[in-house]
Amino acid sequence: MIRTRTDADVRVVTIDRPEARNALRPADLTSLREAFEPPETDGHPPVTFLRGAGEAFCAGADLDAVAALDDPAAFARRGQRVAAAIEESPSVVVCGVDGAARGGGVELALAADVRVATPRATLAEPGVSLGLFGAWGGTVRLPRVMGEGEALDFALSGRVLDAAAARRTGLVSRVVDDPRSVADEIAAGEADALAAIKRRLRDRSDDETQEAAEAAAFADLHDAHADEIARRRER
Q1: Ramachandran area for residue 111 (φ above 0: left; ψ -120 to 50: alpha; else beta)
Q2: Alpha helices (runs of H) in 91-178, residue ranges in sequence order
Q3: Which residues contact 217 (CB under 8 A, 6 or more apart)?
Q4: Which end of the chain has the lower number of beta carbons within 10 A, N or C?
């Protein structure tokens, strides 16, 4: 079950199946993707906070559902579409990992813009122990985030990283008691600047194309905020 609510400038998306450590079934994946798709009306908040209910962030795919799959490739593509919706969301997505993140839970976190963990967080890609691997875009995003060497070690060994190790390897950017506070901190920025920064840092175009887009975005923001810039200069 996926729950959503909006608090001021932060939309909270909660994976709410604590009795199963928030493991995701096919229908849950569909609901989660829909939670990140831009609404047709009323715009979207500048920041979305992704969390899990209870003692875990997300245990990944529900193993009962995996065992019953008659089209594993379609299930992988469904998870990939969820991760893509998170990554491509117009909001800045902050993922708060509290407790266990395993397999697909790690892959959902990898798709977020900012990953933060509590001191009790643990992260692992245990698929290798089942003869599988993370196929919700993890093989693409993991080396981008951790670097190829760390990513190979993490995925091939199936080892569990605590919060401090996840911070050292770059899998999370901060270890904090309250991940929601990071979402609130980011939401204090100007919404159009947040959106522009996300678009530019997420751009996979060649360097020259990215730099041209960066200059154009800077000019647009400068024009939009010229009065505020002038006021601050006069202080």
Answers
A1: alpha
A2: 104-111, 138-146, 148-157, 163-169
A3: 196, 199, 200
A4: C
Tokens of 205: 């175009």
Per cent of the chain over pLDDT 70 is: 96
Tokens 């919700």: give the residue.
136
52: tokens are 């899990």
Q: What is the pLDDT of residues 91-126, one digit of tens each?
A: 999 999 999 999 999 999 999 999 999 999 999 999
Take residue 193 and report the two structure tokens written for it.
Answer: 């600047």
Question: If you ran DSSP here, which 8-state letter would residue 61 be given?
Answer: B
| CA nearest neighbour of 116 among 50, 24, 196, 60 | 50
Is the pLDDT assigned to residue 160 strictly greater than 60? Answer: yes
Homologous superfamily of the 2-186 domain (CATH) = 2-enoyl-CoA Hydratase; Chain A, domain 1 (3.90.226.10)
Query: pTM value?
Result: 0.90
